[in-house]
Amino acid sequence: AQKITQTQPGMFVQEKEAVTLDCTYDTSDPSYGLFWYKQPSSGEMIFLIYQGSYDQQNATEGRYSLNFQKARKSANLVISASQLGDSAMYFCAMRETGGGNKLTFGTGTQLKVEL
Amino acid sequence: DADVTQTPRNRITKTGKRIMLECSQTKGHDRMYWYRQDPGLGLQLIYYSFDVKDINKGEISDGYSVSRQAQAKFSLSLESAIPNQTALYFCATSGPGTYNEQFFGPGTRLTVL
Q1: Å from B107 to nearest chain A CA?
Q2: Contact between A35 and B101 using a beta-carbon 8 Å cutoff
Q3: pLDDT at A1
Q4: Model confidence over B87-103: pLDDT tens digits?
Q5: Angstroms from A4 CA to nearest CA on chain B
Q6: Any B CB within 8 A of A71 CB
């Protein structure tokens, strides 16, 4: 079974609108972390936001927030007030305890922000 | 200067050739990782290292080997390259931090003809 599932290969959003990128995960480990990375067309991987499994509140970093629903095993990324520069590939990743800080990545969602 | 550097950035080689991809970091991190990225598959872990004496296989280590020459250097080798190793290769590091997140190098685009 896939540990990280991103079901949206591509998404479009209009500038200044909010967009939600979906991520579901599968683990039996009670302690884990969830990450979102952005990959622009230039190719580098940029860390955006982190959510720990024991965190009581949803993580926020500027225009990025994480809608963490533990019982549903989902960790959706919400980008508010989209900008043209948000056009990129977005990856959800999970780190499990005892895994040497290894990350398991989803297949990504390509987001395009339109005028 | 970038904290995690990879050389070369682009490489075209032929089937059967040996090739080495190099990664250096100035972050002082103990943990280093090699991933490959194929279109539609996300990133897959090839090898990872906790320190100079500790190297571990990842999900897709067949056909690859690594060397941790120093805390700051972690090299990936393809002993006999094959076309399905054509991919984008990333080196990453992690260390003590707020989230222990991984920091990625700029990537090496490898094409095996």
Answers
A1: 7
A2: yes
A3: 63
A4: 999 999 998 877 888 99
A5: 10
A6: no
> Rounded to an integer, what distance in angstroms lies between the CA atom of residue B40 and that of residue A106?
9
Q: What is the SS3 assignment for A54-75? A: CCCCCCEECCEEEEEECCCCEE
Tokens standing for residue A94 = 């999970």
Q: B76: closest CA among B2, B15, B6, B4?
A: B6
Q: What is the reported pLDDT for A97?
A: 79
Please say whether the beta carbons of B5 and B24 come within 8 A.
Answer: yes
- Chain A residues closer than 8 Å to B50 by CB: 100
The Cα–Cα gap between A105 and A92 comes to 6
> Quick check: A59 and A66 in contact, CB under 8 A?
yes
The verdict on whether omega for the bond into residue B106 sits within 30 degrees of 0, i.e. cis, is no
Q: Do A31 and B100 form a contact (C-beta atoms < 8 A)?
A: no
| pLDDT tens digits, one per residue of A52-102 | 999 999 999 999 999 999 999 999 999 999 999 999 999 999 998 766 778
Q: Is the Cβ of B56 closer than 8 Å to some Cβ of chain A? A: yes
Is the CB of B52 inside 8 Å of chain A's CB atoms? no
